[in-house]
Amino acid sequence: MPEPPPAHVADPAPLPVPDLLPFGTRAVPARDKTAWLVAEVRRALAEGRLAPGTRLPPSRTLAAACGLSRGVVTEAYRRLTEDGHVEGRGRKGTVVRAVPRPVPPPRTPEPPPADPFAPAAEEAVFDALRALPARIDLTPGRPDLTAFPRAAWLRATRAVLAELPTASLGYGDPRGESALRTALAHWLARTRGLLVHPDDLLVVSGAAQALSLLGPVLRAEGIDRVAFEDPGSLGVRQHLRRTGFATPPVPVDHAGIRVEDLRATGARAVLLTPAHQFPTGVVTRGARRRALLRWASEGGLVLEDDYDAEHRYDQAPAPALRTLLADRVCYLGSASKLLAPALRLGWLVPPPHLRDALVDAKRFADLGNDVLAQHTFARLIDSGDLERHVRQSRIRHRRRRDAMIAALGRHLPDAVVHGAAAGLHLTVTLAPSVSDTDVAAAALARGVKVQPLSWHRMRPGPPGLVLGYAAVPATGIEEGVAALGAVLRALS
Length: 492
Hints:
Elements: H1 17-20, H2 33-46, H3 59-66, H4 70-83, E1 86-88, E2 94-96, H5 125-131, E3 136-137, H6 150-163, H7 178-192, E4 202-204, H8 206-220, E5 226-230, H9 234-242, E6 249-253, E7 256-257, H10 259-265, E8 269-272, H11 286-297, E9 301-305, E10 329-334, E11 346-349, H12 352-366, H13 371-382, H14 385-411, E12 416-418, E13 425-429, H15 436-445, E14 448-449, E15 451-452, E16 464-468, H16 474-491
Parallel strand pairs: 3-14, 5-6, 5-8, 8-9, 9-10
Antiparallel strand pairs: 1-2, 4-11, 6-7, 10-11, 12-13, 13-16, 15-16
Helix pairs in contact: 2-4, 3-4, 6-13, 7-13, 8-12, 14-16, 15-16
């Protein structure tokens, strides 16, 4: 049974000819004029220029406009009617009845997921590993996103939208909103002992952008090498190399980076995670700090990534290096582990002689961060909600850390645990005969994601695994570590 016409187009007005076809852009061909006209009407239907119920121009009018015979138009309308696209309604003319659905292009088969543990996969290992499914994800650096303080963030957002002046919705200060820089200055004073003026701070989109901004600024200072902890974060090392720096390795031992080896590299800058070294968890001790500061006072520059500083469980956090030598330390912090990486909020406290150049770099990079997110984050700090969230997170993370240590004792009794006093991960070293990439690949086949320690080494060293626990409940930690134990037994 034919479908009834739409009620609201019972007596449609004729469509002006120029609205139907783009005359002048596609010339009428010398042959097959009827097929050409049918194709043009179908194109207009498919592109949405003709909706159901639209009245087409009378055949005489369309023929005159196109320079066609009326018979060509009549035949085209007949074919369109047979196709079901239009319908003749006597004196009411020819009306569009149904729009054809465009045929989707054939789907290109997706390539198989990359193997993150293949020898040639270094550049994309993290993307490859994230893309693979797993029942239990023990990769490091993942906060518990289910604990994100949604209610507090929503309250802060509503308050900001209710109070923020209209003028503040324009382009902001490339250094960051004054409200956030002030709140961060107070936060760093309370939590890290850093006494900084809000004008000393630069708001960035996380530590990654901070490193990108530092690249051209440091090269203008004649710095083309940034010494790097070994082992140290593969992701950060990749970022430095992308920014154009060589990254000579400097060994890390039980007391932190070995400063004499740092001197031997000849590098004028070094990137450190002294509060909780990634991945070993070592805290840089007093004697090493003093030696490091002597090196910096002689013309070196320390890039201090304050990684995991807020997540301490068994002892008070070590003071930030910048509290001791502000002129030679560039301090980097981020909300990624405090709240969530998706916020893309971080902060940079550069030495005074680099500040103006970094502000210029930020201005030309993106004109500044999201203004609303900055004000919301500032209110979260000022209200005390961020501090409450951090306290609750410490309790939950400590329980999960304890669950992981207990599970490792049961299922990997020969592994040595490192870095358990703080952070969101710990590291285990294994017997020298074990290949940690083989262990990680076999674990993934059992549905458990981990990172091999060798990913983060530049020089040979003991094999091991870097295990995140913050985002996994105790039952998942137990199951994941049990799977690791089974893998090690199968491979030995």
